[in-house]
């Protein structure tokens, strides 16, 4: 996986002459960068699959949160180090450092991670032969995974809970300049603040809370807080307001993401064929949520911001969060009646 990241980092230097020669070269360059970025989006999903296989079920949410901490720390550190190297030693220096770091990651992966991470004793001993129809790219396999009890509702909750804040963050570069009146440097500092909050929530709060409360309770709590975040976005007028709102915003975003991932990996069997792992497959499906949001988010976010302004993002968040709160409360009532 790492060489793909290096390839995308080096591609500006490789393709800059091509893009300068002809418009077709520019289009080719952008398609190449987009393809590399698409593959990079799967790095976290692959790491989540390994962590899911290697950790006990009761520790899975905490482990996934710590994994998010590591990725977030790498992004913040890499951004700062990349800026320093580019300004001190030249614009292409970070790409060569990234190439060396990614090659080192390849060596660590080959040495440290076992070739087979799935626990064979958890696999059912007898199941129908579905090896011909199952697979990561099989629509039949996708439909079958989503038809497993409790998978589709939780997956839809994952998509809907992060969508309003997702489109807001996609439009944040525009909002920070047009609405907050910030320059590029100040916008970067604000995003660093947002990233630090993510590190704290995923690295510490997720593990502490999951050890004391049930996942259903934490998911309901995150949706209730999300309602308050929506109202805060409606009333937001400046940078200070956003800094206050960012704390519960990051909490609900990270908590809902980690908890839904954990619930989904527990809802499916560890493995039902000799070739695929259901938790790994479902995490791969979950990884498609963020690219999906980035695909349709700019269109929806641009329309909302142009016609209704920043409060529109808060209104959408309040509506969706209230629907999810009602659903979760109703689901808990039904579960108590069954008991």
From TrEMBL:
PROSITE patterns: MFS
Lineage, highest ranks first: Eukaryota, Metazoa, Chordata, Craniata, Vertebrata
TM annotation in the entry: 20-39, 67-85, 91-113, 159-182, 188-210, 217-239, 308-329
GO molecular function, one term: transmembrane transporter activity
Residues of the Major facilitator superfamily (MFS) profile domain: 1-333
Membrane topology classification: Multi-pass membrane protein
One GO term describing the cellular component: nuclear envelope
Pfam families listed in its UniProt record: MFS_1
Protein name stated in the entry: Solute carrier family 22 member 18 isoform X4
Major place of residence: membrane
Alphabetized CDD domains for the sequence: MFS_SLC22A18
Record localization: Membrane
Keyword entries, A-Z: Membrane, Transmembrane, Transmembrane helix
Gene3D superfamilies xrefs: MFS general substrate transporter like domains
InterPro entries (UniProt xref): MFS, MFS_dom, MFS_trans_sf, Tet-R_TetA/multi-R_MdtG-like
